[in-house]
Amino acid sequence: MDRVAVVTGATSGIGKVTARELARQGFRVVLVARSADKAAQTASEIAAAVPGAGMETLLCDMSSQKQIRAAAEELRRRHDRLHVLVNNAGGIWTERAVTEDGLERTFAVDHLGYFLFTNLLLPELRRGAPSRVVNVASEASKLGRIDFDDLQGEKRYNGGLAYAQAKLANILFSSELSRRIAGSGVTSNALHPGAVASGFGLNNTGLLRFGMKLARPFLIDEEKGARTSIYLATSPEVEGVTGEYFAKNRPKKPPRNGRDPGVARRLWDVSARLVGLS
Ligand SMILES: NC(=O)c1ccc[n+]([C@@H]2O[C@H](COP(=O)([O-])OP(=O)(O)OC[C@H]3O[C@@H](n4cnc5c(N)ncnc54)[C@H](OP(=O)(O)O)[C@@H]3O)[C@@H](O)[C@H]2O)c1
Question: Would the pTM count as exceeding 0.90?
Fold first, then answer.
């Protein structure tokens, strides 16, 4: 029977390489993407690189809770059990924007997207156990703190800090999830991929885009950037390992603000309210 891996943000950068390598390892890979054209293009690139790859596409804009719910429902129709979920879709935005759900975009896509999609797919992941949730976070989380008084940057918005907060939220979500599903056979780990020359940051204009372009020669390539995601999704070395944060295929101490179970629990409760989960 197929082992099924779901990869969000599979149309670019780290996610695209991760999807390709999971296909190479024999997974049936679900490419989750917000653009039908990019999804089709990615699927044909992977098919060319991995002859016989088992692949399918699933459309979902992760800024929309309605679309996340519809995508989860569609996945449930297609697959009774899932074995890997790589939460990877994300970005940084210098300009504040509000999603159709009335939420600040960075918090919505980079954190609530992971939170809602995973929670909706937990029954399928449990049925697929041993199975793995892999959450692509970032060392940018070191600069973050969960500002419960202004989670959505309504009082003050800074794109870098909003990103750092969301990536810190990935780490807190990942560890809280591991506690909540302990013993289920579903593991949950977070990771830092490294500083990667991907499409990251290039959606912006101005200083950030300029800085990302300038930095490119000093960044690692997407192949290297995807290594820890692939490792956590597939390596027998991390079978059963859960609640950890990794970089370069090794466990790493999460940043100080990412280690407090009380903050993780509170963030979980607030997030559940914001996405309408009980
Ligand atoms: N690059 C780095 O240095 C770095 C460092 C630490 C962590 N990370 C993390 O690594 C992950 C992957 O980033 P990357 O570097 O590979 O960047 P990337 O090349 O820009 O890829 C980002 C992916 O996320 C998708 N995405 C963005 N917003 C979306 C939305 N609203 N709905 C659905 N998909 C959406 C993009 O889709 P489109 O193709 O349609 O735009 C793309 O497939 C992110 O979570 C990022 O925070 C990156």
Answer: yes
